Each structure stands twice: as C-alpha cells, then as structure tokens.
C-alpha cells in the first residue's frame, strides 16, 4: 500500500525524473503474479495503483495494448463489488471509478475493441450503483 500512497501523490505529467522513478513500480504492477493474485484485496490495490498510473500518464497509455487489456480487465473487476458500501475498500473502489472516468478509459476500451469488457463494466454499474453511492460516483458512471 506504500506504492499506492506514492502514486496518489504524483501529479499528472510529472517531471522526467519522477517518471523514471515510477518505471520499476509501473512495470512490476503488470506482472502475472500480481494481476492473478489469489488475494482479492491485493488485486484491488493493484487496480488502484494502475488507475493512478493511467491518470499520471494520460493522455498516453502507460502500457502496450495487450497489457492495457489486462489492466482494464482488472479495473473493471474492481467495480463488481461497488454495491458493498460497508466494505472497508468501498472508498478505494469509488476512487478507481472516479480516476478511470477522468481519464476516459472507456475510450481506450473502445480503441482496443474490448467490447466484452465494456459490457461487463456496464453490467456491474447497472447491478451495483445506487443512490447511496453519492453524486460523484454516479457522475463518474455517466
């Protein structure tokens, strides 16, 4: 979670020295061991870090097309439990949603022809998002 805290402090389009310092962590986050980790909480932290990376590097994608498909899939999975507003991870999930909305990741999904992923994402939204989520989260879904 320390890495996640670091990513949250980085501004968009940081200086080259900061970008260089983030490269190792950015590359490590797409390792199969993390993307397919057995602990769903670890997966959620990875999704959070990756969503922040997409914001930091926007409008450029931080990964190649295949890796972007993998990370977008991971991020969409994070939306599966948006209905659990009592979860200690609810704030992290809504933060991911807000970040992904800001960088318009849906456009990236369309560019990469991730139709099934887009369907999954909207399925999660329609199934889980309720008025209790607050205005910001509901606006992000729109």
Automatic annotation (TrEMBL):
InterPro entries the UniProt entry points to: Pds5 (IPR039776)
Primary localization: nucleus
Keyword annotations: DNA damage, DNA repair, Nucleus
Superkingdom, taxonomy of origin: Eukaryota
Protein localization: Nucleus
GO cellular component labels: nucleus
PANTHER family for the chain: ANDROGEN INDUCED INHIBITOR OF PROLIFERATION AS3 / PDS5-RELATED (PTHR12663), OS02G0612800 PROTEIN (PTHR12663:SF44)
Name of the protein in its database record: Uncharacterized protein
Organism, as annotated: Zea mays
């Amino acid at each position: 979670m320390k890495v996640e805290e670091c990513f949250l402090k980085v501004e968009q389009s940081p200086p080259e020295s900061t970008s260089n310092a983030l490269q190792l962590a950015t590359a490590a986050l797409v390792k199969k061991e993390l993307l397919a980790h057995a602990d769903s909480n670890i997966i959620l932290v990875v999704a959070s870090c990756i969503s922040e990376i997409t914001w930091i590097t926007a409008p450029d994608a931080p990964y190649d097309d295949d890796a972007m498909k993998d990370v977008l899939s991971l991020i969409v999975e994070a939306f599966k439990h948006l209905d659990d507003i009592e979860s200690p991870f609810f704030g992290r999930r809504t933060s991911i949603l807000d970040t992904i909305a800001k960088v318009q990741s849906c456009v990236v999904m369309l560019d990469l022809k991730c139709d099934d992923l887009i369907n999954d994402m909207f399925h999660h939204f329609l199934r889980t998002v309720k008025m209790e989520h607050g205005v910001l989260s509901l606006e992000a879904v729109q």
